[in-house]
Design a protein that fits this description.
Elements lengths: L1 H8 L2 H4 L16 H10 L7 E5 L11 H10 L3 E8 L5 E3 L20 H4 L20 H8 L4 E5 L5 H11 L5 E5 L3 H8 L7 E7 L3 H13 L5 E5 L5 H13 L2 E5 L13 H6 L4 H10 L3 E4 L2 H10 L5
Parallel strand pairs: 1-2, 1-9, 2-4, 4-5, 5-6, 6-7, 7-8, 8-9
Antiparallel strand pairs: 2-3
């Protein structure tokens, strides 16, 4: 059990010289990324961490460098990005298995070399090609984010070894988070192969049998990750009890407000908050439940609301 706890939290130690027991002013942190991680690791902090899904994809191509720069300017705390590997083993940012939707080219990422990929331009969300924006490498994205914002690498577990090595080389290991649904023994086995590890967070779909079983395993074995991502399809005792137990152990709770099936059903997502007379009608319920990490497709709307209630200062 002690080894499991160490592995899940080891990357946090890279930046967690910022102890939960001794609060610092913002000026005392080495950089903004360090401050954000300190807020996550502090059970007493009421700061709400905002995670932007694929960056500012409403104004720039998703998973592009301009989309990352835009959310950093907004004040977002973590950038969620998607990772794939080209035919010649270059890690790039791309959600889909093909490049069809997001570039002017076509084909599987795994069948395309990096040089070939660079002959195409990225597309905006409304399917209009840009003139100059290219698909970034993971290296370029991590360098853009270094010291400025945390990073959640998604669709990335198959490339864990390569990502850890890259993060170590760039000095960003403690800024990079990976999530998963694997059991503890599998996670520990994979992470024990590396001297340093990324931050790791379990995904708990609490209305489904596998999600319940994974959450029970963490609770029964006394393993306390820095946070849990919690998904649920309908309200009730299961979700309420789950979040209460998470908070009791000192972990943080992460909610996805991207679409209704992740956060309790119709009327509870980002679009509902955008359409509401007051976004508090949607986002406020998650603060009341105890969530302090929110992944969103409307980061500016969420940040403005959180600042209005003193939860993102």
């Amino acid at each position: 059990m002690r080894k499991a706890l160490y592995i899940l939290m080891s990357a946090a130690a890279v930046l967690a010289a910022v102890s939960c027991t001794s609060k610092k002013s913002e000026q005392q942190y080495a950089n903004r990324a360090e401050k954000i991680l300190a807020e996550i690791n502090d059970p007493e902090s009421d700061y709400v961490v905002v995670i932007s899904h694929r960056g500012d994809w409403r104004n720039y191509p998703e998973n592009s460098i301009p989309a990352i720069e835009s959310v950093i300017r907004m004040g977002v705390d973590m950038m969620e990005l998607d990772v794939k590997m080209t035919k010649d083993s270059v890690l790039i940012l791309m959600h889909d298995k093909t490049i069809d939707r997001m570039t002017t080219g076509k084909g599987l990422v795994s069948d395309i070399t990096y040089d070939s990929l660079m002959t195409f331009n990225m597309k905006r969300a409304h399917n209009v090609a840009t003139d100059t924006i290219k698909v970034p490498t993971l290296r370029e994205a991590l360098l853009c984010c270094k010291d400025r914002i945390l990073v959640n690498v998604d669709h990335a577990y198959p490339y864990y070894k390569e990502i850890v090595e890259l993060a170590d080389e760039l000095g960003v290991t403690g800024q990079v988070l990976m999530k998963g649904k694997s059991n503890l023994d599998k996670v520990n086995e994979d992470m024990s192969k590396h001297e340093n590890n990324l931050l790791y967070m379990p995904i708990i779909d609490i209305n489904k049998p596998k999600g319940k079983a994974l959450f029970a395993e963490y609770q029964d074995r006394g393993v306390v990750p820095m946070a849990y991502e919690v998904c649920w399809q309908y309200p009730g005792e299961e979700i309420d009890s789950c979040v209460a137990k998470i908070l009791e152990t000192g972990s943080k709770a992460w909610v996805n407000t991207l679409w209704p099936s992740l956060c309790g059903g119709y009327g509870n997502d980002d679009d509902a908050a955008f359409d509401a007379a007051d976004p508090a009608d949607v986002y406020g319920q998650y603060l009341d439940m105890g969530f302090s990490m929110i992944q969103t497709d409307r980061p500016e709307l969420l940040i403005n609301y959180l600042r209005s209630v003193g939860r993102h200062d």
